Amino acid sequence: MALDYAVIAAYVLGMIGMGWWGMRRATSKSEYLVAGRRLGFTMYSGTMSAVVLGGASTIGGVGLGYKYGISGAWMVFAIGLGILLLSALFARRIVRLKVYTVSQMLDLRYGGNSSTISGLVMAAYTLMLTVTSTIAYSTIFNVLFGLPKSIGVIIGGSIVVLYSVLGGMWSITLTDIVQFVVKTVGILFLLLPISLATAGGFDGIQQRLNDPAMFDVGNIGASTIITYLLIYVFGLLIGQDIWQRVFTAKSPKVATWGGITSGLYCLVYAVAGAVIGLAGKALYPDIANKDEAFATIVENLLPTGVRGLVLAAALAAMMSTSSGALIACATVASNDIWRRKAKKNDNAASDVHNNRMFTLVIGVVAIAIAVALNDVVAALTVAYNILVGGLLVAIIGGLVWKRGTRLGAMASMAVGSLTAIGFMVFVDVYANEAIYYSLGASFVTYVVVSLATPATDAAVLANWDRRVAGDGSAEEELVNA
């Protein structure tokens, strides 16, 4: 496997080199957190695709295809739909706001300080997203070197933390473009056709499996499909890691069409993962754990060198999501939680240093949690349930309903989050009811409390309309109250 090792080593060194190069460009808060808000169409669509298609979408998507066949595409398909809806409906307004976090958007829309609750919920979500992506590194390092989980997590996590700390969003953007190319080649142009051809095409798979359910798009179950759509479509609409990528677009047009292109790419990636898993089921029907299907297919099916590139593609998918979630968590912690309690400092170098330190500390914490945690799916479920159940109604309500108030938003965030947590604790962490009831409770609370409290001050709404229209929204006018 010497050639495989060489490919992986070259990839890792390239990531670190990108981080070092990005450090030279990250000279201000805007450059460090949102790449100066100047990404064009190609870089924007590539980096958006990279951040949303992580280890869960690659290894998890293949695993779902192995277990459920074509129907296993639904999880990643929902992610693609989320990006399409965000880009088509809200991206233009989000770019014009010129903020750094979702919580700052809430403050602009509702007035006052709403970020205590929303910042904590968003920080918890982005931290768990970082952790789940970090855990996934162990799969690749186990296949390559036979390393135990903890060592693989520490190695992979340290690489991501290093380049993220060095150059912030610039480093992450540059590495994401490389990662996007690597996983496109590795997954779509190598693993997909090779696995499908080896299994004899769809006719060969049908003969080997003799199971029509594996070609049924609803095989995974209606309730699971609905849950995927609720969690991932809505989660992609409001996640800080996704919004922070939208903030990097140089124009509303780039955010819209670059995002739509990324969403379409995700739909293709969803089908590809399911087909790879389906072919793997036909070739290796006795894999006990579906999450091991990807590694088994790669290890047994591909020749040396090609195997290294495909494993690098999987590693790329994990690192892109992990780094995006890490910078998002650091941004929320620095700007929404810590900055409001600390003395303001307008020095650009100090701003970059502080955000860099937050990225480092949170990265170390994420690695420590990833070493101790075993259930990736449970962690991801917790993160998305709290995010969607707690914040969706307040955020989307603020974008589409002028009568929504600050008290209504805060009450809906508290009730939705607590309802989701309650169901996960007292019923089951995987219970679909958690997302259904938390969304329902959050929506009712938002409407009732908003109608029962005075409407948002006209001056606040006028300022909001001005910012959404892109008038006078320079970053210097941001109020970090």
UniProtKB/TrEMBL annotation:
Tell me, in one coarse class, where this protein mainly resides: membrane
- Give the transmembrane ranges: 6-23, 44-66, 72-95, 116-145, 151-173, 180-200, 220-243, 264-284, 309-333, 354-373, 379-401, 413-431, 443-464
Which keywords does this Swiss-Prot/TrEMBL entry list?
Membrane, Transmembrane, Transmembrane helix, Transport
Topology term for the membrane: Multi-pass membrane protein
Does NADP show up as a keyword for this record? no
Q: Which Pfam families match?
A: SSF
Q: Which domain of life is it from?
A: Bacteria
UniProt cross-references to InterPro entries, sorted A to Z: Na/Glc_symporter_sf (IPR038377), Na/solute_symporter (IPR001734), Sodium:Solute_Symporter (IPR050277)
Q: Where in the cell is it found?
A: Membrane
* Coiled-coil intervals: none
Q: Which family does it belong to?
A: Belongs to the sodium:solute symporter (SSF) (TC 2.A.21) family.
The name this protein carries in UniProt is Sodium:solute symporter
Q: Which organism is this protein's natural source?
A: Lentzea miocenica
Q: Cite the source lineage.
A: Bacteria, Bacillati, Actinomycetota, Actinomycetes, Pseudonocardiales
